[in-house]
Design goal:
mainly alpha, two-stranded antiparallel sheet, 7 helices, Lysozyme, 152 residues, single chain
Length: 152
């Protein structure tokens, strides 16, 4: 018998979901202010950014993996209905961008947990604004998340 128990299986976003995050976040090896005014680095990492920080692409990938695990666990915890891998990954991408608290409080989550799967793409499209202003990049991201969702 192994000295250490096997880790509990945690559901992960698929490659299509990770690729969406990478495309829409972009890779930044030095800190930058996102349109919402939040300091970010790598692929949208925000938790440990410092102004004089500089990272490598490998470090950006590591930060993304760490961040993804937080959002994957949150989506797994919050969604009470079955999801396909693409649906799960679309929600992880969405939560990565808007935050767990916003997903948790959203009409999107409430409707989904009632089993109204078909409502999710339209609900995603409601999240395309920063400080009240519609953003083209967010509209494109929400459309891509909706397309991944629809691929079931």
């Amino acid at each position: 018998m192994d000295a250490y128990p096997s880790p509990i299986f945690a559901r992960q976003a698929n490659q299509d979901g990770v690729d969406l995050i990478k495309v829409f976040e972009g890779l930044h090896l030095t800190p930058y202010l996102c349109p919402a005014g939040v300091w970010s680095i790598g692929y949208g990492h925000t938790r440990t950014v410092r102004s004089a920080m500089q990272i490598t692409e490998a470090q950006a990938d590591q930060l993304l993996d760490e961040d993804l695990s937080l959002f994957e666990r949150a989506v797994s915890r919050l969604v009470t209905v079955p999801l396909t891998d693409n649906q799960f990954s679309a929600l992880v991408c969405f939560a990565f961008n808007v935050g767990v608290g916003n997903l948790e409080a959203s009409t999107l989550l409430r409707l989904l947990n009632r089993g109204w799967y078909e409502q999710v793409p339209a609900q995603l499209m409601r999240w395309n604004r920063v400080k009240g202003e519609a953003m083209g990049g967010l509209s494109r991201r929400r459309a891509a998340e909706g397309a991944l969702w629809r691929r079931g």
